[in-house]
Amino acid sequence: MGDGTAAHPGLAAELGYAHSSGNPLHRLVRWGAGTRAGGWVFSRTLRHLDDAVGRLTGGRHSAPGLLAGLAVLDVTTTGRRSGRSRTSHLIATPYAGGLALLGTNFGQAATPAWVHNLEADPRASVTYRGTTRDVVARAATATEAAEVFELAGRFYPGYAHYRRRVGESRRIRVLVLERA
User: Fold this and answer.
1) What is residue 52's three-state secondary structure?
2) N or C: less crowded end of the chain, CB within 10 Å?
3) 175/178 Cα distance (integer angstroms)
4) For the chain, what are the domain ranges?
């Protein structure tokens, strides 16, 4: 990745972005979210729940952080149709000193809108715990995508379930974020 130079220690390190192994409750929620029913429920409710938790805690906590012990990254893209800023709360995968995003959409049939937005305009910003960085997204190579899925499965086994569920019905996009 281009941001691993001495001038930039790496996007994940700059943001202090990392995942914990989680406590037993966190691991149970991670497992449940990876099921077909859990994916369906979370795909429809998590954004709203996360917004509420953020408001109630002054942005100090997120729903996935409290429920599953996962770090949430705010990714702000430009809407491909509206041209407006759109912020999505996403779980990123620390990768090669930087970050990667998996467009799994909880294993649902549709590709998430934020993926289409980044494909139309790869410039974005990411915010974690009050620190914001401008980034550019690029499609991962096949080798990178395999590595990202393997790394992501270590902290959230739901990704493997989503991948099997999606099967050949659509391609799950993997995007690597690099400093702008």
Assistant:
1) helix
2) C
3) 10
4) 24-179
pLDDT in 10s for each residue of the chain, 180 residues: 443 334 456 999 999 999 888 889 898 888 888 888 988 888 888 888 888 888 888 877 888 888 888 898 999 999 999 999 999 989 999 999 899 999 999 888 899 999 999 999 999 999 998 899 999 999 999 999 999 999 999 999 889 888 888 888 899 999 999 998
d(CA 68, CA 91): 11
Q: Read off the pTM.
A: 0.84
Q: Which of 51, 36, 56 has the alpha carbon at shortest distance from 88?
A: 51
* Burial 167-179, CB ≥16 within 10 A → b, else e: eeeeebbbbbbbb
CATH of domain 24-179: 2.30.110.10
Cα distances from 109 to residues 7, 13, 173, in angstroms, run 41, 33, 13
How many whole angstroms separate alpha carbon 79 and alpha carbon 117?
A: 5
